[in-house]
Amino acid sequence: MKNHYFSHFPFAELRSQDGRACFKICSFKYAYPHAKDAVDADWHRNYLNLSLPGFKSEVDEIILNGIILDYFIKELQAFEALHRDKVNLDPIEPYFWLGFSYICKKSKTIKVKGYVQYPAGIGSVLNFDFQTDLPSIIKFRKGLEGILSKFPAVYED
């Protein structure tokens, strides 16, 4: 796989509180850079790495829509400000799914649930969950913002 992508391209990383689980996604180019319309031009090519105790999942060439990512960043900001009890990243192409919910708002302890599937929609599914904290969520969001800084969402005029 292309682990060197994480040193050359923007990525978002989310770790569990104990450091044993890690979800990383890296955008390395637009999927359709010569597309004539915004719908096709907004897709990013990504590399995904999920490490769990006893398991490791790596998927290359995941495509992710920039507008969905932009929306999720806004939802995460509301979650961080305690305006939402839970938020989900539910991509159009179902290679993965992530959900965040507060275990305890006072301590800002968060449960992360999700899955990784390959091939998307029909392949084997690895379900996972782990516990993290608000600073880790903020770091993850900033990573997603870095992805959109390099590969901005493409909106229709």
The low-pLDDT segments are none
Q: In angstroms, what separates the terminal alpha carbons?
A: 37 Å
SSE sequence, one letter per element = HEEHEEHEEEEH
CATH topology: Transcriptional Co-activator pc4, Chain A
Estimate the helix proportion, in percent: 25-40%
Overall geometry comes to globular
Counted up, domains total 1
CATH domain class:
Mainly Beta
Widest beta sheet: strand line-up: 1-2-3-4
CATH architecture: Roll
Count of helix runs: 4
Query: What share of residues are in beta strands?
Result: 35-45%
**Average pLDDT reading:** 93
InterPro entries: WapI
Task: Describe the protein's architecture and organization.
The protein has 157 residues and is an alpha+beta fold. The chain has one domain: Transcriptional Co-activator pc4, Chain A, CATH 2.30.31. It is built from 4 helices and 8 strands. It has a 4-stranded antiparallel sheet with strand order 1-2-3-4. A 4-stranded antiparallel sheet has the order 5-6-7-8. The longest helix is centred in the last third of the chain and has 17 residues. The chain is globular. The mean pLDDT is 93.
